Amino acid sequence: MNIIRIAFNELVGMFIDDGALALLSLILVLAVGYAARIGLVGGTVAAVVVFAGCLAILGESLARAARRKFSVR
């Protein structure tokens, strides 16, 4: 039973490891979706903004993780 719990925790950890990454991605998608819905941006622009925003959020998350892992104490 212990192995099942460990496997489940690892599986959940893959998706919820970085709460800031998930939260910022959700906020980005909601904001761009709302802007596209009310007509502030077109569909192509919205797609480009979501793509670029997700890359920026991912880059920031990787930089934060690298700082944590390689910080000198």
Quick tags:
mainly alpha; 85% helix
- What's the N-to-C terminus distance? 38 Å
- Determine the mean pLDDT: 86
The oligomeric state of the chains shown is single chain
Helix- and strand-based class? mainly alpha
- State Rg: 17 Å
3D architecture notes:
The structure is a single chain. The protein has 73 residues and is mainly alpha-helical. The chain has one domain. Helices cover 85% and strands 0% of the residues. The protein contains 3 helices and no strands. Helix 2 runs antiparallel to helix 3. The radius of gyration is 17 Å and the shape is flat. The termini are far apart. 0% of the residues are buried. The mean pLDDT is 86.
List the helices and strands and how they pair.
Blueprint (H helix, E strand, L loop, with lengths): L1 H15 L2 H19 L5 H28 L3
Summarize the structure.
The protein has 73 residues and is an all-alpha fold.
